[in-house]
Specification:
By secondary structure, the protein is mainly alpha-helical. The protein is 55% helix and 0% strand. The chain contains three helices and no strands. The protein has helices at residues 12-21, 32-45, 54-67. The protein is elongated. The mean pLDDT is 90.
């Protein structure tokens, strides 16, 4: 079974303790952003990702916004 659980910050330590008390392998926790960030960093380092210099990207955004006025 897969589920998404949102935990109030003040209860995170209790939740972590509860998860730790379960048998090993009973729960698989994934931080969905960790894998994505790692993948993108690897792609960037291996020059497999097309990037745009900051100022060019900013100019493009400005042009799009100005055209909508």
């Amino acid at each position: 079974m897969t589920m998404m659980v949102k935990i109030d910050d003040k209860y995170i330590s209790k939740f972590e303790s509860f998860i730790a008390s379960l048998p090993e392998g009973a729960v698989e926790m994934k931080n969905s952003l960790d894998g994505e960030i790692s993948n993108r960093v690897t792609q960037y380092k291996n020059n497999q990702m097309q990037t745009t210099p900051f100022m060019e990207g900013l100019d493009s955004i400005r042009e799009k916004l100005a055209s909508q006025l």
